[in-house]
Design goal:
With about 350 residues, this protein is an alpha/beta fold. It is built from 12 helices and 10 strands. A hairpin with a 4-residue loop joins strand 1 and strand 2. The longest helix has 27 residues. It is globular and about 70 Å long. The two termini are about 30 Å apart.
Length: about 350
């Protein structure tokens, strides 16, 4: 039996429940979960490294990798134990293959390969952003075609899904991701890492607002750009300092957040109408932003658009979402070779389910 034949064996058993052991280590969260049939979360463990990286003002890749190594074995054992099933009942082992930090990805992939060999189960390399999108499937039924607004520290994209497991990126950021812009603006106005939640809180509490520009780009474009907005924030701060004026962090935070949200909401709604999508899915770590959630809910109610937003615990990086996305591959009999490599630049469209006519 070849390596590929080993991992393909008994991938789909429709008469039995599908239990997927999922691993996520793409950045600074070590996460392991066991998912039943793509929607039922039996266990979901997350070891955060935020306290460690705060001292550096951001994620240090080498430190993140070492922290993953320290906790991954224990978390695998505990996730299976808390799930209430035996290892031999597992159907597959899923792991984030990319995108992400290559060293961090490698830790999860090595652990997943070891588990797949030890339990004699197929391995499913999974796309991190597909995981964020399918986090919505953990609490709601997806209706196709649907549109996903992906907003995170490394990604800002509009993704059209015409069918299950099919991804077409119709718009993406041309420079900074929205989460990255939040952290940079937060640092400029004196908030600690991670800065996004602080900007969101100050924006909602402030009665004052600093007017800032919106980057709409070309009239028919679904792309995004946040570097100019970030520069406008820095310019507003520097001008206030040069004039000896008081800097109002809350006003700047509100101006920045209102600019970001208006562009995200308008382009998402326009895409929904143009592509006649049935649902709008909010996905990624910035989906936890209260201002964005409220603005999308209000606009979608007005437009008659069905909006799905995952619970807060499934917005940020977690392994349950990886199990949910991997289940789509498992249903179609797709898995990965045991010589699978980490792919920091893995394409979402390339990861789509391979359908045969």
């Amino acid at each position: 039996m070849t390596m590929q034949e080993h991992i393909k064996a008994d991938v789909v058993e429709p008469s039995k429940p599908c239990y997927i052991l999922a691993i996520e280590t793409s950045c600074d969260e070590t996460a392991v979960s066991v998912i039943k049939d793509g929607t039922e979360v039996l266990s979901n463990l997350i070891a955060s490294q935020i306290d460690t990286h705060q001292a550096f003002g951001g994620v240090v890749p080498e430190v993140a990798s070492r922290k993953h190594v320290e906790s991954i074995t224990y978390m695998l054992e505990e996730a299976v134990e808390k799930s209430g099933i035996e290892p031999e009942e597992l159907s597959a082992v899923a792991v984030t293959q990319g995108p992400g930090l290559v060293g961090a990805l490698l830790v999860g992939i090595v652990a997943a390969k070891s588990a797949a060999l030890a339990f004699d189960k197929p391995l499913i390399g999974t796309h991190h952003i597909a995981g964020h999108i399918y986090a919505n499937a953990l609490t709601s039924e997806l209706k196709y075609p649907c549109m996903a607004l992906v907003v995170s520290g490394g990604h800002t994209e509009l993704v059209l899904m015409e069918s299950e497991g099919s991804f077409q990126v119709i718009g993406r950021t041309r420079d900074d991701a929205v989460g990255e812009a939040y952290d940079k603006v937060a640092r400029a106005i004196g908030f600690p890492y991670p800065g996004g939640p602080h900007v969101d809180r100050m924006a909602l509490e402030s009665d004052e607002v600093t007017p800032l520009p919106r980057a709409w780009l070309e009239a028919d474009s679904y792309d995004f750009s946040f570097s100019g907005l970030k520069s406008a924030v820095l310019n507003a701060i520097n001008q206030a300092k040069m004039k000896g004026e008081e800097i109002h962090p809350g006003a700047i935070a509100r101006g920045f957040q209102e600019s970001v949200i208006e562009v995200l909401v308008e382009k998402s709604v326009r895409a929904m109408h143009q592509f006649k999508a049935k649902q709008l899915l909010l996905c990624g770590g910035v989906a936890a932003n209260r201002g964005l959630r409220a603005a999308l809910q209000e606009r979608c109610e007005r437009e008659g658009i069905e909006l799905l937003i995952p619970p807060m615990k499934y917005c940020t990086d977690n392994a349950a979402m990886i199990g949910a996305a991997a289940y789509i591959k498992w249903q179609h009999g797709e898995s990965s070779a045991l010589d699978m490599k980490a792919d920091p630049g893995l394409s979402l469209e390339h990861w789509s389910v391979q359908r045969t006519e």
